[in-house]
Every structure is written in C-alpha cells, then in structure tokens.
Design brief:
Length: 448
C-alpha cells in the first residue's frame, strides 16, 4: 500500500501575498493533513476531514507540531561547484578563472561527476529543496551523472550541459557544432524521462561566440518545451566585457534577445545592472530574472532591485547560485534576500518569502500545477519545518505570537537543521529513509 497521511500544521500559498498580514494568500490548517496516494497528493485540509477521506488502516506520519509545506524550489545553481563553495577573495571573472574553471574540469571524469551529483542531491534534500534548476559542466558525462542521481531519488530536476566555446580553458570548451550535437543528444536522452526537464544552457555571452549563440537559437526553436538558462548583468566588469563582444547589441539583454533566447521558459541569473529598457524586454518576453542574494553578496556583485522588476511587470524568482552562493539552504537565502532588499529601502515580508520559495518559484517555472503548492493532483513533494530546531530558535519562538512571526524566525535563524523531513513523490528522504512511520516529535510546548 502506498497511501500515507502526513499530519502537521499545513501551510500552502494560493497567491502572492500583498502585505505582512494577507491571510487570503494562503491556506493554513493548525491540525492539518495531506493525503498521499501513489506519489501524488489526493487531499489536503483539516486532519479530521482528510482522515475520513483516507479511510481506515491508513499509515500516518505524525509531524505535529511542525509545519508541513510544499518542497522548496531553487531556480539557479551549479552542481559542479558543490566543492567550490567558499573560494576566497575574488569577484566574478577572477573567481571563475581562478577557482571554477579549474574545478569544473574534474567533471570529465564520470566517477567524480557521479559522486558529486549524489552528494549534491542529498544536500538539496537535507535543506528541504525538492526541485532545482542546475547548470552541469560542459561535459555530457556531468549531465548523465546529474539526471541519474535525480532519477535515483525520483526528484523533479531541471538541468543541462553548459555550452562555452571561448574565454575558458581548452578542457572546458566545446564548439558551436559540438555544443549543439551534445545538447541535442542529451535532450533526446533525458528530457521528459521520469521527472527530468532539460535546460538549454549557453553559460553567458562572454563564453559563447556569435556562432554558438546561433546554435543555441536553433536548439530553442527545435525544443520549445525545454528551459533556457544563462547569466545576465551580474557584475559591472562582466557587463562591459559582454557588451564589447557584441557591439551591435543595444545592451547586454539585447544580446540574448537578438538570438531569440528570451521567452517564458528562460531563466536569467542575477539581472543586477539593468536599464529600465532591459527589464521591460523581460516583461514583454516573459523571461525570468533570478535573484541570488548570497551569491551577489559573496562575490561583491551588487543588489537586485526587486521593486523595479515589479514596477515594470517583469517576472522574477529566487535562488542560491551555489557555489558563488554560500548555502544550499533556501531559508538562509531568504535571510540574505531580506537584507539585500532592506539596503535599498525595500521590504520582504515573511509571507512573501515563503510564497517565493514555493508557489512563486513554481510559477516562475510554469510548474505550479505539479509543485510549489499542496493541492489534490500535485506531486507529493513536501517539506516538514521545525521552527524550534536550534536552542536560540526555541527561545525566540516562546515569544512569537503569529504564523508570520514564526516564518520570519525560520527564515532569519533557520538552516538545514530546521528541515525535520522531506518527502519526494511521497517518500521520506531525510531521516525517514529508515522508515515511513514517524513518531510524534517530543515537544514540551506547542508554539504559541
Ligand atoms: Zn550562476
């Protein structure tokens, strides 16, 4: 029998919160439950209602008093950089050349790629992230390792081989033809297999010649159901270099626009040094700007201007950008997002943070029917969050008086220790790997 009833304080968003107390933006069941059947959600609501729906003999995973949310989503990171986090001292272009382009050469080796891919997936799960959009290295072996590790865990993952044919060491360069052929073969092999989605991935304008950009356009035209991921306007030196390589383009955004790479399935990492014109082009095309706060601070890149994206009507998402990002935790990412926005006089309410981590990022991927919210028919990717996981949090929570306050404690003080469990298509993948049956957490007092 594959049915499971997950009991706890169930929280799921139905729309983007408009203020700190927009209770219409979410559904919350203090004693709630999610019914899982064959990896899908079959029912969500109060425990008393859902347990009736489940019928007798149902297995119950009792997570009270923890929160039950949709699995978290990370929309931009680099799996070959898992071991290159915390590389000291340099800004973007120097950091790439000094550390990253050395590290990524190791992924030609299938055994190394497989080892890191497994650890990468487990690290995501340990942090409550059930779906991520990742760059692999230039080597097809790294893509095979990535999707194999995801498939072993039944995770909905999006990824692709980076294409780069200049301004990188020889061991990391393909050619326009080779990049096209390898990408084409990998799409055929992986896209749509199980829960895998492919992302066509020209790394950025600096490392692709116009000929490779032309080949990227062909791939996008031939595979409109694949995602596209690249980087845009992360660092001033990078913007100057990129635009110097494409003098005919109006600006950095126009480089990608000229090659037909902007659309609803396009994810553009960073988008910091953008003119209004450029953000308006994203709004027109539906392309998504991806805010990577820990990375932007770590590399000294700059501050993402969310309010300008909102004002100009452009879509945006949030991500770790590991390994320039300093943590796999989406909670820690939102802690830094809050500060980055604060520095610009912008507010990030805890409700909006948790919306972004779940339904907001799912909408940015046009996958909200499957992930990012708890509703009948969705995939049963679920995270259990413990807002008392650290002594300092437990102490802080004694004086918390609302759900929003609890969420703010989680995002400000939380990390992987707050992820009590994570379910992928209904299967426990963190502590519960050992058993599906959970015992009630030993707590002396429920959160106020
Ligand atoms: Zn990146």
């Amino acid at each position: 029998m594959t049915d499971l009833l997950i009991r706890g304080r169930v929280l799921t968003f139905v729309k983007e919160p408009e203020g700190i107390d927009d209770t219409g933006a979410y559904r919350y069941y203090e004693d709630g439950a999610v019914l899982v059947t064959n990896g899908k959600i079959a029912g969500v609501g109060s425990y008393s209602d859902v347990v009736k729906q489940a019928g007798s003999g149902i297995r119950i995973a009792d997570h009270r008093p923890n929160l039950v949310l949709p699995g978290l989503i990370d929309t931009h990171l680099h799996f070959p950089q898992t071991q290159a986090i915390a590389s000291y001292g340099a800004q973007l272009l120097e950091w790439l050349n000094t550390y990253i382009f050395v590290e990524e050469q190791k992924f030609k080796e299938p055994q190394h790629a497989a080892f890191i891919a497994g650890r990468f997936m487990d690290e995501l799960l340990s942090n409550g992230t059930t779906t991520a959009v990742a760059y692999c290295s230039v080597h097809p072996e790294s893509v095979d390792a990535f999707f194999t590790a995801a498939e072993e865990r039944n995770m909905l993952m999006i990824g692709g081989k980076v294409m780069m044919d200049r301004n990188a060491p020889e061991g990391l360069r393909d050619t326009p033809g080779k990049g096209y052929d390898e990408t084409k073969r990998l799409i055929g092999k992986w896209h749509g297999r199980g829960r895998a989605h492919y992302a066509i991935s020209p790394r950025f304008a600096i490392t692709s010649t116009p000929e490779q950009m032309e080949m990227s356009r062909a791939l996008v035209d031939e595979h409109p159901d694949c995602y596209v991921q690249t980087h845009l306007s992360e660092n001033k030196e990078e913007v100057a270099f990129a635009t110097s390589l494409y003098p005919e383009a109006k600006d950095y955004t126009d480089i990608y626009a000229r090659y037909g790479l902007l659309g609803r399935k396009t994810l553009l990492g960073h988008c910091i040094y953008m003119r209004d014109r450029e953000i308006s082009v994203l709004a027109e095309t539906g392309a998504v700007g991806v805010f990577c706060p820990t990375s932007n601070l770590f590399l000294g890149s700059g501050l993402f201007d969310r309010d300008r994206f909102d004002r100009l009507g452009a879509r945006h998402a949030v991500a770790t950008d590991v390994g320039a990002g300093t943590s796999f935790s989406m909670l820690e990412t939102m802690d830094e997002a809050y500060k980055v926005l604060h520095l610009q006089g912008q507010r990030l309410s805890p409700l909006r943070s948790f919306y972004m981590l779940t339904l907001g990022n799912a909408r940015a991927l046009d996958l909200e029917h499957r992930i990012g919210s708890l509703h009948a028919g969705a995939d049963a990717d679920i995270v259990i969050l413990d807002s008392h996981a650290k002594p300092a949090m437990e102490l802080r929570m004694r004086v918390a008086s609302s759900l929003a306050e609890e969420l703010f404690v989680l995002q400000t003080m939380g990390d992987d220790r707050c992820v009590a469990e994570v379910y992928v298509a209904g299967r426990p993948m963190k502590r519960g790997k050992r058993a599906d049956e959970m015992t009630p957490a030993a707590r002396t007092a429920e959160p106020a």
